[in-house]
């Protein structure tokens, strides 16, 4: 039996519909509802994403059938460190796993990084996804940072709460200091005794 032909190519605007279908499937696997996933990923949004500077998607096919994709973005790191290539999404359909699809996609990422002059590739992987973490670890990816995310509105609310709490603490300390200062003054203030002049 002939081995299936595995191919990895850079996705173009004409592939937006195929990528949207694969992305929706990956979202369903992660627990997103179909309606929400379908609204989030439409061909128009995929085309816009592919047109962004620094964004690339690679599409994997087995005998011409789309079976997976990877999305990478160029990341600038601080003021000094050179830019690196970040793997933001990697997905292989369940029926095509354990056939080298993910490895082929990452091979395409390595080739893309070399062509763009990037010395480092890093992957964003959920801490709860043990299989993916083991997969990347076997390929030499090491844990370097813990990435934390917060909605902007939540950060604003937390900062406002922290500022208010800090003001309350400061005012409380000032009141305590004033109270202590008042007590100390009362304790050290000299007592004046009024004496009546002696009768002559």
TrEMBL record:
<protein>
    <recommendedName>
        <fullName>N-acetyltransferase domain-containing protein</fullName>
    </recommendedName>
</protein>
<keyword id="KW-0012">Acyltransferase</keyword>
<dbReference type="InterPro" id="IPR050832">
    <property type="entry name" value="Bact_Acetyltransf"/>
</dbReference>
<dbReference type="InterPro" id="IPR016181">
    <property type="entry name" value="Acyl_CoA_acyltransferase"/>
</dbReference>
<keyword id="KW-0808">Transferase</keyword>
<dbReference type="InterPro" id="IPR000182">
    <property type="entry name" value="GNAT_dom"/>
</dbReference>
<dbReference type="GO" id="GO:0016747">
    <property type="term" value="F:acyltransferase activity, transferring groups other than amino-acyl groups"/>
</dbReference>
<feature type="domain" description="N-acetyltransferase">
    <location>
        <begin position="20"/>
        <end position="161"/>
    </location>
</feature>
<dbReference type="Pfam" id="PF00583">
    <property type="entry name" value="Acetyltransf_1"/>
</dbReference>
């Amino acid at each position: 039996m002939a081995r299936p032909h595995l191919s990895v190519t850079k996705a173009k605007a004409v592939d937006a519909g195929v990528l949207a279908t694969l992305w929706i499937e990956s979202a369903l696997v992660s627990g997103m509802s179909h309606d929400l996933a379908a609204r989030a990923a439409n061909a128009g949004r995929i085309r816009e994403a592919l047109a962004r500077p620094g964004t690339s998607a690679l599409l994997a096919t087995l005998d011409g059938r789309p079976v997976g994709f990877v999305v990478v973005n160029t990341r600038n790191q601080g003021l000094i460190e050179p830019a690196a290539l970040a793997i933001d999404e990697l997905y292989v359909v369940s029926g095509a796993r354990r056939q080298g699809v993910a490895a082929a996609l990452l091979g395409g990422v390595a080739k893309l990084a070399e062509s763009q002059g990037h010395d480092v590739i890093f992957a964003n992987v959920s801490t709860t996804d043990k299989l993916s973490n083991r997969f990347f670890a076997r390929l030499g990816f090491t844990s370097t940072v813990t990435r934390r995310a917060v909605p902007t509105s939540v950060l604003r609310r937390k900062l406002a709460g922290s500022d208010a709490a800090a003001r309350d603490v400061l005012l409380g300390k000032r009141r305590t200091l004033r109270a202590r200062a008042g007590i100390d003054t009362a304790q050290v203030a000299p007592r004046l005794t009024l004496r009546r002049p002696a009768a002559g």
